[in-house]
Amino acid sequence: MKKPVVIAFALFFWAFPTFAGDAGALYQFSTIQALMEGVYDGAAPVGGLKARGDMGLGTFDALDGEMVVLDGKVFQVKSDGSVRVVPDELTTPFATVAFAQPTIVKDLGPVASLAELEKAIDALLPTTNLFYAVQVHGRFAALKTRSVPAQKKPFPKLTEVVKTQAVFPFRDIAGTLVGFRSPGFSGGLTVPGYHLHFLDKERTRGGHLLDCTFAAARLEITVLPRWNVELPERGAFAGSDLTRTREEDVRKVEK
Ligand SMILES: [Zn+2]
């Protein structure tokens, strides 16, 4: 191969790192600290997330509800419980996505709680020092989600917002849990341990998962040895003190 051709190839792969899907990479926009501190300015369009993954979670500009990314579509679960597919131009202050290419597939259950589910998945993982994309498809005997209402400036901290969260208890509901398991050492930048959102089969109900019970479900795990973090250049991120978030507050907000 002549030199210019080699250089052209090298440039192509450098310029398009997500070419061929970048399987095995967790893509994250912003940090959980920033969200905890009230950096809710949408700073990246959700359309861009689709090039980085076909499953995942996050939130929207002004913290307007919970984001669920499933099968390449981006859904918004608002605090009134309604669900819609969002336009690509809508922006996000925090999101994590990956491409689902499961290599660990297993039937699970019965499972009595989210804590039990987490333990059951942990037992199947080769190590807890990598990231994993998680999907659980099934019919849930009971399931509880939450969503958060859009905020006005000056934005309150997330610990304050969750006091006004809407909680949705469901019974006998079919759908998919979608999210990630992150290593304990990733705390601060992202939510350590499990962070799962839910979307029902009809795509009309969902939210951030608080608890679930099921008799049987299908687990799909994608191992993610790479972690790509992109930081916001717009909004309040640059001017915020992001050194003071306590990990126990993150746990309180997410569980
Ligand atoms: Zn969440």
Structural features, described:
The protein is an alpha+beta fold. It has a single domain (21-254), classed as Hypothetical protein, similar to alpha- acetolactate decarboxylase, domain 2 (60s Ribosomal Protein L30, Chain: A, 2-Layer Sandwich). It contains 6 helices and 14 strands. The protein has helices spanning 3-15, 32-36, 46-49, 114-122, 158-161, 247-254, and strands spanning 25-29, 44-45, 55-59, 66-70, 73-77, 83-85, 91-92, 95-98, 104-108, 131-147, 166-182, 193-200, 206-224, 226-230. The strands form 3 sheets. A 7-stranded mixed sheet has the order 6-5-4-3-8-1-14, with no helix packed on it. Strands 9, 10, 11, 12 and 13 form a 5-stranded antiparallel sheet that branches. A two-stranded antiparallel sheet has the order 2-7. Strand 4 (66-70) and strand 5 (73-77) form a beta hairpin. The chain is globular, with a radius of gyration of 18 Å. The relative contact order is 0.24. Bound molecules: zinc ion.
Helix % is 10-25%
Shape verdict = globular
How many β strands by DSSP?
14
Question: Hetero groups bound?
Answer: zinc ion
- Class per helix and strand makeup: alpha+beta
CATH topology: 60s Ribosomal Protein L30, Chain: A
Poorly predicted ranges: 14-20
Précis, in short:
The chain is of the alpha+beta class.
List keywords for this structure.
6 helices; 255 residues; globular; five-stranded antiparallel sheet; 60s Ribosomal Protein L30, Chain: A; alpha+beta; seven-stranded mixed sheet; binds zinc ion
